[in-house]
Predict the structure.
Amino acid sequence: MSTDAPRALSLTPHALRIEWPDQQRELAAAALRAACRCADCRSAALGGRPVAGEGALLVDAIPVGHYAVQLRFGDGHERGIYPWSYLRGLA
């Protein structure tokens, strides 16, 4: 599995479209919000508390170096860093 950065990202409120050299994928905003790996979301999941997801909207995607993207959601959540390899796995 490649960890290279995708060729292109495009964002709508409901999905993140990713163009890799070998494939294109679209990940739903709700699925990305539910898959957040920040400390708060991981703690909630480990504690059996629900992690937001349903109805989530994407607001922005900010590159983090050459290895990841930080996603900002309409509910104000912006702590999650999504490495390219993690996004590939979700796709």
In short: The domain at 8-90 is CATH 3.30.2020.30 (NE0471 N-terminal domain-like). The chain has a mean pLDDT of 91. The CA atoms of residues 18 and 25 lie 5 Å apart. The first strand starts at residue 8 and ends at 12.
